[in-house]
Amino acid sequence: MNLKIAVLPGDGIGPEVILQAKKALYAIGEVYNHEFVFEEALMGAIAIDKTGNPLPEQTLNLCLNTDAVLFGAIGDPKYDNNPNAKVRPEQGLLKLRKELGLFANIRPIKPYKSLLDASPLKREIIEGADFTIFRELTGGAYFGAKTLNEEGTHASDLCEYSEEEITRIAHLAFKSAQNRRKKLTMVDKANVLETSRLWRKVVQKVGESYPDVALDFLFVDNAAMQIILNPKQFDVILTENLFGDILSDEASVITGSIGLLASASLGEKNALFEPIHGSYPQAKGKNIANPIASILSAAMLLEHFGLFKEANVIYQAIEKAIEFKVVTVDLKADSKFGTNEVGEFVSNFIFSKDDLLYFNNDNVHIGQSTIV
Question: Annotation-wise, does 249 bind a ligand?
Fold first, then answer.
């Protein structure tokens, strides 16, 4: 298979983690005879610094004319700490989602057995948890009209949704549930918000076409609590943009690190794959950022194109890296391995996965393996 992939490294640790994802895809291409052509472009704070635009037209055109987008992270403290900034890195990401029609964000949540004790939650609570969050991505308050009075003392963000916007992601979520444990939980605030009442009405209607899927509802405040109290009760969670943004980051504590969570953003024609962590500027250039989420995003890209065997090799590589504790300091405080070493381990595993002697546990830990 030949794929042209737009690569948007972005800001902070984005370039470092995206490099490791490219290494994994390169190894997959070599081993399985696929050709991945990467073309990089500016986006985020670095794009503002160089062009004045967080999403330059050249970048957008590239993304519209490639098979998929591999995205790193955006954000910079000089914008985060300046409430008066008129141009922000995040504006570029929101525009990209809108222009590509990426209406569905999919975030799998499943802890690794070797890392159950890395989570702040008790092992007995998270062991066996396995669910996916479907977050609507192009509507709601993030995209609604925004106002600020001249005095800067009153602001508003309009939350809007249409039946069509809800229907299209609801179908994706129900289809996913059919292939999992056949349970879908709709998260809303229907006791207060009119948009949530519309969501509940439309999802119930769509659910009639999926009689094999059990549908239930939770208010978002209760859902936030239940994700911590009993995450094993969930299979597929469906929710709107703002709620999904918050809940998916909350759910990251189940895995032990936000650096482990990948995501796919899908539209009718386009697809973007990214780790859910931010730009983490404090770690920039220090070789300490966890690249696993970015590498897993590459695996989700492969799955999107039906390359399930290839994606599974990446999943095996990540499992092996965690088993051998070839991880960054967010997962093991005294780890001697960094961003690059984890990426090298994964790519070397892809090249030599059947040669288990190569991944001798003792060799990895004492630094004798050629990966370090």
Answer: yes
